[in-house]
Each structure stands twice: as C-alpha cells, then as structure tokens.
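Customer ticket, subject: "Can you confirm the structure for DksA C4-type domain-containing protein?"

Message body: Hello, I'm evaluating your service for our small team and ran a test protein. I'd like someone to confirm that this is what the system normally returns, since I don't have a reference to compare against.
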Amino acid sequence: MADIQSVHTLMQDYQRHITHLDRLRAMLEERLEAAEAELGRLGERPAAPDPAAHRRTAAHVRATIAKLRAAMARLDRGLYGTCRRCGGFIPLDQLVDALDVLECAPCRESHRDQGPPIGPKTRRVVIPEQGGRAVLD
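Agent reply: Thanks for trying us out. I re-ran your input and got the following:
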C-alpha cells in the first residue's frame, strides 16, 4: 500500500503536468492565431512582385497551421508530448522550442534519414510479383 507521502508527491507531479499542458495549449493557440492572421494578410496583399515567392510563403504558412492544428488534436486526445517512434515523453523544453515536434531528440537523431516510423499504427502493403497476393508487412 502506498504511503500518504508518495500519493502527495504523485498528485504534485500530476498538477505540474497539467500546468505544463495548459501552458503548451496556450502557446499552440497563440501561434495558431498568429499564423492564421499572417495567412489572412497574405491573402489581402496585392499581387506581389514575385508571385512564386508569395505562393511559397503562403504554402509554408498553411503547412505551419496544419502542424499546429494536428498538435492541438494530439493534445485533445492525450497524445501530445509523446514520441511517435518510442512512445516516451518528449521533454518540456523540446516542446516549447518546437510545439509541433513528433519525436524525442534521440529518435530524431537515430532515425533522421530512415523516413516515417513503421509501427503498430503504421503498416505497409508489400506488393508481390505478378500473380502473387498482397501482404501486410
């Protein structure tokens, strides 16, 4: 049976975690609002001297908005701040530096050039030679 001190410590850790999540949510909302405002300003501008650069900037802002919305959805599902590769917790300082980060630093370093993770949630379809059957890998 756990003693009162350990329960008290657990509750303190939980409250600290909730406070961090609230802080991260506020930061996500603030950055999302800023990105949406920037996209609005880009749409209001007259034709830019370099239309291709304008399109690239708008595409970058739209991608940022999508990443921030995905991070907020993960936060709502209770998955925000967990590494998509190893399932471990991503340290708070890494989340503050890059709110849309999906992997912890060790996993990012070790899988830099290996592409997206292949795990229980991601499956590949292996297409066989002519006449064979498709197999889930």
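A couple of notes from the result: The chain has one domain: 4-136. Residues 4-44 form the longest helix (41 residues). Feel free to reply with more questions.
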